[in-house]
Every structure is written in structure tokens, then in C-alpha cells.
Design brief:
The complex is a heterodimer of chains A (465) and B (486).
Chain A lengths: L3 H14 L4 E17 L2 E19 L2 E7 L4 H16 L13 H5 L15 H4 L3 H17 L3 E17 L4 E16 L4 E8 L7 H14 L9 E7 L1 H8 L8 H5 L20 E3 L21 E5 L2 E2 L6 H8 L30 E3 L8 H6 L3 E15 L4 E14 L2 E5 L3 E6 H4 L3 E4 L3 E3 L7 E3 L2 E11 L3
Parallel strand pairs in A: 7-12
Antiparallel strand pairs in A: 1-2, 1-4, 2-3, 4-5, 5-6, 7-19, 8-9, 8-11, 9-10, 12-13, 13-14, 13-15, 15-19, 16-19, 17-18
Chain B lengths: L1 H12 L5 E17 L2 E19 L2 E7 L4 H18 L16 E5 L11 H16 L6 E17 L4 E19 L2 E7 L6 E3 L4 H5 L6 H10 L4 E2 L3 E7 L1 H13 L4 H4 L29 E4 L22 E6 L2 E2 L21 E2 L8 E2 L4 E3 L8 H6 L3 E13 L5 E13 L2 E7 L2 E5 H6 L1 E4 L6 E10 L4 E9 L2 E8 L5
Parallel strand pairs in B: 4-6, 9-19, 10-17
Antiparallel strand pairs in B: 1-2, 1-5, 2-3, 5-6, 6-7, 6-8, 10-24, 11-12, 11-16, 12-13, 14-15, 17-18, 18-19, 18-20, 20-24, 21-24, 22-23
Helix pairs in contact in B: 1-2, 3-5
The chains are: A alpha+beta (465), B alpha+beta (486).
């Protein structure tokens, strides 16, 4: 695994090979291992070691990027030349800024420089193939106990991410991540659980397996009920997978491009009074690096307060462009927030450390069920895609544990539904929320989200299982 | 590279494995985009490395490294064997591979113009010209265009004696015009959405696409959609253009025929399949007009699923998937073929890159064109009432591949054999086999296009590969439409 000192040495060589006005190098590297199981056996088991350097050169408003994973002089010279050749042929971009120095990257006046986050855990980094096999064996044992078949993954990784530029910026982040995802299958039903954490000790695979197994057992012989508008109780993974589809739009570039559902809506009350959302890379339940694709410190940004969309996030150049745009007076505070993607890019920025605010009166999923006369409990959503970009209608399916709730109790499993649901309506109809937790799914990035009880959720069709 | 691959394979072979292969891969990519008159991004990338796959103690292990040194190759081989031995702790039976003759071969994608010999100026000039044409239409609020080239050179060596060197080129380009007004965002793409058209060809593909020539029409349609009527909700006859039918094939035929899904190996992420084993040879998948093949051979065309050998050294083949409406074949590998009684793999094991384990992937899964001459205009003229839908906008299907819903960018109402009005936000939904059994017409070879889907995701860790889908416009009866906005 590449160290910061080794990266600095490589960056020195890159600088020597380049004739550009400015040079930036982003380093990413990981040791990644994943044990995959299905049919109660390990069927795939992989490990990978890779490091990448991505070089950006600037020539008077012209910039481009080249990426390589070999670090000998010849490979680096080739990558530098590729970046420079791509940059030189372009017309100057008046919006392109000089690269930030360490002081600018550190953020607002009075704030500390970008500080490393403690997201590296030796216990996670030390996990071996044998350790993963033993955990899988314990998950398979749970499946056997319930006469089920299991499939899933147990992965561990150690990764590094750094950014250096010719104005003296040198940021480095080192972290681990362990992840367990488990599906339990019966003849006509299934259950699922997934969790990850930088600290492997925070995961309890057997408990996750037991929960997934209980869902599979309790949803056997699923009933079919007619589609329509139902009160739903969405577990945290279901919430994150569906709401994730709106955060691409909390971006200055999305507003400037007029492709955001927040066009003409910032400052308006779009969601229910109980919805509060921020982006906070420093949150204790979050993961990832504390700096963005230009090395800028990721700031805490309140996005939604009491249902009102307050602002969006900005890369440096986007903030400058927005200040000079016709939208400047309509979009709330405009300043670089440290959410930019590596340059050059078309999409600008995005908040990716989403944290939902805790409700005044949190309700557990059990309490939500107990308070529901008739509704649907949803474990997981799947294959979600955007249908309408401005009303933010998304479609998708329920999966791996969908239950009928009647008279305050889970009654039986249900055949899975297709939904076509506006996220604006959904977040206006939230009747109860749990304490937010770190959750992960498959359709969106990891977030800190609550379970939600939502009225009038729009199921439009039922499938065959 | 080949020497490094050989050393890694030799290091694995002396560690008591019953099978080993090593793949060295060198990938080069160029990606260019423009947005509203400026360069969006401009990048090149290279990635090199070796992956070693072994069977030891009856179980799989895989390890990959970007370090091409002898020591790193040996370490990766040793790691793969250790991992296989760990896998063996949780197994029910030994992995078994159906036989495959060792192959020694060299192969390169046929192309006329190596895309990497074209200049970046030339590439950007074309994209900016398209951009200018799109933005010349009043009402367009965003123009995006892109172009992508890839060269993938691979060396595959196996403990059974295979020695295969392949070089694959792929090329893609396309653009989208957006129009935001009032409370609507509408868009039109050309020649397809999500990046345009992609094939395993050289730059000649770009030259044949008529990108500039179509730009104003496409932009005008994006703006005109704001004044179009909403697609009605109900049951209707629909005609799908060939690109949308290609995606329909991808989702409701291509994925459910993956034998690893059928066997439960993808249950945790991508899902399983309704096509359980007893359905092979028995299921009426579609109407008599539905004939689908999975064909990786060059003679099928330059699809993103075209190659000479798959990533475990099995020669490219054509497998009949649906024959006159009956389900006749799965996508298989050396590990899974025996479960359907096959004595040879169907040759569909593919990996995203050197650092990924190859798995069953679609090759070119295509519907064959109708045998009787039938143009799109003739098909529309022969339709009393219906909706013609073009260009995918959204797609979703359940994890067994029964229930699907697709949205398209634009629709046209057909009455008495004529397009009578534009419809916005068209969508349709259904159940896979009911849908394919409702197909009562398909256009002939002149209307058939081999489309590329560059972004098919599967596996854990997820791997994104390109697949090919040939299709002609086709007509379907009694289809539910409009429920996406219900």
C-alpha cells in the first residue's frame, strides 16, 4: 500500500516531468478483499491490490486529466504528456480557477486546516481470508438452523486517498471498511440485511443473519393485495435507496444547468416540517475523506431545515459562476463548500455525506407498526430509476421482505410491489421517524437516515412473487 | 506483459492447484465530453495488471495485482491459493469444469480507423459542432455530448495450455438536448440515450453516425415535448423503436438467462431468475415471431459482446436462446454448464478488467429480424391505433425479471396507420413472458441495428461491462401504458 511519503515522491517526479502552469495529482489505492457466498457455500473469493495516480495539468484556463496505475518514470511521463496534450488543444475556460493552496483548501477563516479523520482500524485491516470464511460459516449455520439458503458477501478493505498540487496542497486520508450483506431465501420468500463500518467490531454478522432469516421465515407464502396508495414503513436501507436519487440535484451546477428539481424552489417549503437534512463528512457515523476532488475541506452544510430547502453545495468554480449568474439572488448562501468532484467534470459537485436530522419524538419501527391500522412494511427497495426529473418521480420494486401490517401487527408477507412515487410528496407525508442510523443499500451511497412511516405511498403494480 | 502472466501462472501451478489461469490486461481509454459550448471533461487513462484464478481443494480463489514484477506475480498466485483454501472451508461440493480444448490464438477487433490515431482536436471539434447545432434551437437549456474510445489488450494463459492474446477496441458517442420550462424538464438523445451508440469498432463508427446532421431535429423534439399531450394511461398497442427494444431484450431476456442467476449465485445483489431449470425447452417465452440468440461471434456484428474467446478461454459461440417463441438456451460457463446437461460452456465468462473475477455476462443477445420485408413505416401504416415509443428514458425490473416498467423520451400516437400527434412521458409496463407473447410483428433486416449497452452492472464487487443487442422495431398488443404517471 502506498504511503503519503511515497505519493509525495511520485508527485515530485510528476512535477519534474510537466511543463504545465499548475499540476495536481490525486492518489487512490486499496487493498480490497471480498468473500462471496451463495447456496450455503463460498463460490467467489477475491482480493486486489491497486494504486492509481490521476494527474491534472493546467495551462492558462485549459485543463485535462490522465490516469495511470504504474509508477515508473516512463509511465508517469506518458500520463503527464497525455494530460498536457488533452489540455493544450482546448479553448481557455474563463471559469477555471487556479488550484487552491493549503490555506484556501482549509476553508473559512478561523477554521482549522483539513484534519485527518480517524477512520482506520487495525482490526479491520488485519482480517484474513480465513477470518472471512469463519464468519461466512457462522452465517451459513444460521441459514441451516432455519432451513434456509443464504447468499451474500463479507468484504474488508484498507484504502488511501490523497491529493497534492503544485501550490503546496498535500492532503491524505487513510481508512478501512468492513461490509456484510446477507440474503436468506426460503422457497417463496426472502429476507435481507446489510451493514458496513470502518470498524469491523461494529458489525455483528450473526445478528444480521438472524434478522434476515426471520424476515424470510415470516414472509413465506406471500399474499397478493391490490396496488394502490398505502401507508408504508420504510426501514432505513429503503429510505436511503429512494431518497438518494434527489441529492444529485443539490448542486450549484445542477441549478445552473437547469436540470435540478430545485430550479426555482430553493427557499420554498418543499417537504414536511419534520424534514431536516445536512451534509456532514465529520459526522461520527459517516465514512470517507474530509476533502473533495480539489482538496477542499468538506464543510457541514444544512440543506433542508423544517422542510425548507435552504441551499445547495458548491465546488470553487461553481460558487464563483453562481455569484455572477441570474440565479444568484434565489439560491441562498453561495460559497465553496468542499463538495466538488475532481476536475474537469460536467456535474460539478454533490453532497455525499448525508445526515438526516433526528425527529423530536423518535419512533422505533416496532412503534410505527403498532400505530398502523393498515399498511406495508418494506425492508428494501430495488432497481430504482428516475421517471420525472422535476417532480422527482422514481420507480422501483420492493424486495426481500415486504409485509402486510394490520391492526398494529405484522400479519403476513406480501408479493412485491412496483412503485411510482414523487420524492417531494413522500417527504411531505412522513408521519414518524426513528433515530437516524448509518445505513447502506445498493442504489445509493451510504447515509445516516431514519426509518420512516409515510402515508399515501404509491404502489402501481404487483409482481409474481 | 505476457512474461509476467506466465510467471504468475507458473507460480500458481506449483502450489497444488487442480486448475489455474492468469489474465494480464492493459486498458487504455479516452473520454471527452462537451456541455453548452465548452469542454466538460477531457481525460485519458491506462490500467495494467494481472489476475490469477485457481481451484485448490475444490474451491475458487482469485487475487490480482497491478504490480507486474515477478515477486508480485508470485505473491498474487500464492494469495489466490490461500484464498481458495479458505473458500474450501465452506463448500458443499468441489467445483467442476466442463472440458474445453486448449486454444492458442491471436485476435484483434476488425476496425478501419484506430480511434487513438484521431486527434483530440478532431474529436472535440465534432462534439462542439454538435453542441452548437443543438443550442441553435430556441428553448434548449442544456446540450451535452460525449465520445469514448477503449483499447483492451489481454493475455490469457491457463494450466490446461491455453495461450490467447486478444485486442478489443470499442467506440461510442452521442448527445442529449435538454429543455427546462415551467415545471418540466424534457430531453431527447441521439442516436440513443445514456451515451449514444457503442460498438466494438474504430472511429469509422463515429463518422457513420450522422451526429451533426440529426442535431437540430433532436433539439427541436426536446423543445416540442413541452407542448405535447401527456401519454394516456390504459391498455394500448405499442411499437418500440429498435434501441428501446434492445434494452427490453437486455432486461427481460438477457439477464434472466444468465445461468449463475438461475442457480442462485447472484441472489444477494442482482437477484435470481424466473427461468428455473425445468423451463428449458418447455417454456413458451414469446410468440412464434420471437427468435433470440446470444452470439459473440464476429459474424453477428461488431457488438460490445463480440470477441474470439471469453475470459476463461472458451471460443465465441452462438446460442439459440428463444426459438420460434420457445425457450431454448441459457448463458453458461465452464463451471455451470453441467447443470443444464451441457458438455461445453456457452463461452460467456467475462471480466471488467484485470482485477475482477470473470463471471457470466451477456454477449450480444439479439432478436432476429422478421423474415418478411417490413419497414418501420409499413408497420406503422399497418397499425390502426397505437403508440410508437422511441429512446429509453427510464428502466426498472424486479429481481426475478418478471415485472418491468420502461419510460421513453418521446411517443407518437398512431391512428389509422398514421402518426397523428406527439406524446410526452410515454411509459409501458408488464410481465416478461406476457409481453413477449404479445409481439405480433417485427421489422426486417433493413431496420435491424446492433446497439451497445456500455453500462451493464453485475456482481460483487460490481463489474460494469458492455453488451450488444440487435433489434428491429416491433409491435406488441394489449400493453399497459402510462402507469408511471398514474
Amino acid at each position: 500500500m502506498m504511503t503519503k511519503d511515497q505519493a509525495a515522491d511520485i508527485f515530485d517526479r510528476i512535477r519534474r516531468f510537466s511543463s504545465a502552469d499548475e499540476v495536481e495529482a490525486i492518489f487512490t489505492g486499496s487493498h480490497f478483499a471480498l468473500t462471496r457466498f451463495a447456496n450455503n457455500t463460498i463460490h467467489q473469493n477475491v482480493e486486489e491490490e491497486n494504486s492509481i495516480v490521476s494527474i491534472r495539468t493546467n495551462f492558462s484556463g485549459r485543463t485535462a486529466r490522465s490516469t495511470a496505475n504504474q509508477f515508473d518514470d516512463e509511465s508517469l511521463r506518458r500520463a503527464v504528456a497525455a494530460s498536457e496534450n488533452l489540455a493544450r488543444v482546448q479553448e481557455p475556460d474563463p471559469d477555471l480557477l487556479p488550484m487552491p493552496d493549503a490555506q484556501e483548501a482549509g476553508g473559512r477563516t478561523g477554521e482549522a486546516p483539513v484534519a485527518p479523520l480517524s477512520r482506520f482500524f487495525e482490526q479491520t485491516a488485519a482480517i484474513t481470508p480465513s477470518d472471512r470464511a469463519e464468519v461466512v460459516k457462522s452465517i451459513v449455520s444460521v441459514a441451516g438452523k432455519h432451513n434456509l439458503t443464504t447468499a451474500g458477501i463479507y468484504s474488508t478493505s484498507e484504502s488511501r486517498e490523497g491529493i497534492f498540487n503544485s501550490r503546496g496542497l498535500a492532503n491524505w486520508h487513510h481508512q478501512t471498511l468492513a461490509e456484510v450483506s446477507i440474503t436468506m431465501l426460503a422457497d417463496d420468500s426472502s429476507g435481507w440485511q446489510k451493514l458496513n463500518s470502518p470498524d469491523v467490531r461494529k458489525l455483528d454478522p450473526v445478528r444480521l443473519a438472524e434478522t434476515a432469516a426471520r424476515k424470510a421465515v415470516e414472509s413465506t407464502h406471500p399474499r397478493e393485495i391490490a396496488p394502490g396508495k398505502y401507508t408504508v414503513i420504510l426501514e432505513p436501507a429503503a429510505v436511503l435507496d429512494i431518497v438518494g436519487f434527489m441529492f444529485w440535484d443539490y448542486s450549484g451546477v445542477a441549478i445552473l444547468d437547469q436540470r435540478s428539481f430545485l430550479n426555482d424552489r430553493i427557499g420554498t417549503k418543499l417537504f414536511g416540517e419534520n424534514i431536516n437534512i445536512c451534509d456532514d463528512a465529520q459526522h461520527p457515523l459517516q465514512a470517507g475523506s474530509p476533502f473533495d476532488g480539489e482538496g477542499m475541506r468538506r464543510h457541514h452544510v444544512p440543506l433542508v431545515e423544517s422542510g425548507v430547502v435552504k441551499r445547495v453545495v458548491y465546488a470553487r468554480a461553481t460558487a464563483q459562476k453562481m455569484k455572477n449568474s441570474e440565479y444568484a439572488a434565489k439560491v441562498g448562501p453561495i460559497e465553496p463548500t468542499g463538495h466538488g468532484f475532481p476536475l474537469p467534470n460536467e456535474v460539478g459537485e454533490m453532497p455525499m455525506n448525508i445526515v438526516f436530522g433526528a425527529p423530536e419524538k423518535p419512533r422505533s419501527v416496532a412503534e410505527m407498526i403498532a400505530s398502523t391500522e393498515r399498511g406495508v412494511l418494506v425492508t428494501r427497495l430495488w432497481y430504482i430509476r428516475e421517471v420525472d426529473p422535476y417532480e422527482k418521480i422514481v420507480t422501483g420494486m420492493t424486495r426481500d421482505g415486504t409485509f402486510l401490517v394490520e391492526n398494529g401487527k405484522v400479519q403476513c408477507g406480501l408479493r412485491n410491489f412496483r412503485f411510482n412515487q414523487s420524492l417531494i410528496s413522500m417527504l411531505s407525508n412522513v408521519e414518524a421517524m426513528s433515530v437516524p442510523v448509518r445505513a447502506c443499500g445498493e442504489e445509493s451511497f451510504d447515509m445516516v437516515v431514519p426509518a420512516m412511516k409515510v402515508r399515501e405511498f404509491n404502489f402501481t403494480e404487483v409482481t409474481k412473487f | 506483459m505476457k512474461t509476467a502472466v506466465r510467471l504468475a501462472l507458473d507460480a500458481a501451478s506449483v502450489r497444488g492447484v487442480t486448475y489455474a489461469d492468469a489474465r494480464g490486461v492493459a486498458i487504455r481509454n479516452r473520454s471527452l465530453t462537451t456541455k453548452n459550448g465548452r469542454v466538460g471533461h477531457a481525460s485519458e487513462s491506462e490500467s495494467l495488471g494481472i489476475g490469477v484464478r485457481v481451484i485448490a481443494e475444490g474451491a475458487w480463489g482469485f487475487a490480482a495485482s497491478a504490480d507486474l514484477s515477478r515477486a508480485a506475480g508470485e505473491a498474487a498466485a500464492a494469495r489466490a491459493v490461500d484464498i481458495a483454501k479458505a473458500s474450501a472451508r465452506v463448500k458443499r461440493e468441489d467445483v467442476r469444469l466442463v472440458p474445453e480444448p486448449a486454444a492458442v490464438a491471436e485476435w484483434t477487433t476488425p476496425y478501419k480507423i484506430d480511434p487513438f490515431t484521431t486527434s483530440v482536436e478532431q474529436n472535440l471539434d465534432l462534439l462542439l459542432k454538435v453542441d452548437g447545432e443543438v443550442r441553435a434551437i430556441a428553448g434548449v437549456t442544456l446540450a451535452e455530448a460525449g465520445m469514448n474510445f477503449q483499447r483492451e489488450e489481454s493475455w490469457f494463459l491457463s494450466s490446461e495450455g491455453s495461450d490467447i492474446h486478444q485486442t478489443k477496441y470499442s467506440t461510442g458517442a452521442g448527445y442529449t438536448a435538454y429543455a427546462f420550462a415551467g415545471s418540466e424538464i424534457q430531453k431527447r438523445s441521439y442516436p440513443n440515450s445514456f451515451g449514444g451508440q457503442w460498438q466494438n469498432r474504430g472511429y469509422e463508427l463515429i463518422e457513420e453516425m450522422k451526429l451533426v446532421e440529426n442535431a437540430r431535429r433532436v433539439a427541436e423534439e426536446a423543445v416540442a415535448l413541452h407542448h405535447a399531450d401527456q401519454c394516456p394511461e390504459g391498455t394500448a398497442t405499442i411499437i418500440l423503436d429498435s434501441s428501446q427494444l434492445g434494452l427490453q431484450i437486455h432486461e427481460s431476456i438477457g439477464h434472466p438467462i444468465e445461468l449463475d442467476r438461475v442457480l442462485g449465485m447472484e441472489a444477494n445483489f442482482a437477484g435470481t431468475s424466473f427461468l428455473t431449470l425445468e423451463k428449458l425447452g418447455n417454456l413458451r417465452y414469446g410468440s412464434d415471431l420471437v427468435n433470440v440468440v446470444a452470439d459473440a461471434r464476429q459474424e453477428h456484428g461488431p457488438g460490445l459482446g463480440t470477441f474470439a474467446y471469453d475470459d476463461e478461454g472458451v471460443a465465441a459461440q452462438c446460442t439459440p436462446i428463444i426459438t420460434n417463441g420457445r425457450f431454448t438456451g441459457y448463458l453458461s460457463s465452464r463451471e455451470t454448464a453441467h447443470t443444464i446437461g451441457a458438455t461445453r460452456s456457452g463461452g460467456t465468462l467475462r471480466a471488467e478488467c484485470w482485477n475482477r473475477l470473470p463471471m457470466i455476462r451477456m454477449t450480444n443477445v439479439s432478436i432476429l429480424p422478421g423474415e418478411k420485408p417490413l419497414s418501420l413505416e409499413q408497420l406503422i401504416a399497418a397499425t390502426d391505433a397505437g403508440i410508437y415509443m422511441q429512446t429509453n428514458k427510464s428502466w426498472s425490473i424486479d429481481d426475478k425479471r418478471y415485472n418491468f416498467q420502461f419510460g421513453c423520451e418521446i411517443g407518437w400516437e398512431i391512428k389509422n396507420g398514421k402518426r397523428v400527434r406527439m406524446l410526452k412521458n410515454p411509459s409501458y409496463s408488464g410481465i416478461t413472458t406476457e409481453f413477449w407473447n404479445s409481439m405480433d410483428a417485427i421489422c426486417s433486416r433493413d431496420e435491424w441495428t446492433l446497439w451497445g449497452t456500455p453500462n451493464c452492472g453485475k456482481g460483487q464487487p460490481q463489474q460494469v461491462v458492455g453488451t450488444g443487442h440487435g433489434a428491429s422495431p416491433a409491435r406488441f398488443r394489449n400493453i399497459r401504458v402510462g402507469s408511471a404517471y398514474s
